[in-house]
Known about the structure:
Helix 1 packs across helix 2, helix 1 (2-29) packs antiparallel against helix 3 (66-91) and helix 2 packs across helix 3. The protein has helices at 2-29, 37-56, 66-91. It is built from three helices and no strands. The chain has one domain. By secondary structure, the chain is mainly alpha-helical.
Amino acid sequence: MLLLLSILKLVMEIALLSLAGQGVLYILAGERRDGNFFYQLLKVLTRPFTAAARRLTPSKVADRHVPFVAFFVLLLIWAVVTFEKIRLCVSVEMTGCR
């Protein structure tokens, strides 16, 4: 169970950092962001999460706001997984939690 929680936490952290990096490049690259290799790479990494967020949100939510929704949903899931991992480690008296 600890391994599963650690894997989920790692996936959430990679997705969160990718979304944050994409946001920073969105600001820095400006209009030329679609030609930026790293922006496109981060866009590919975050596509499954933004697609899931698009399915969760109503159609009235603008497409440009969907990455924000994805970020905050992932942040919430990361927090839940982190607290569950802490709870599990405390319940087994920190055996194997290093």
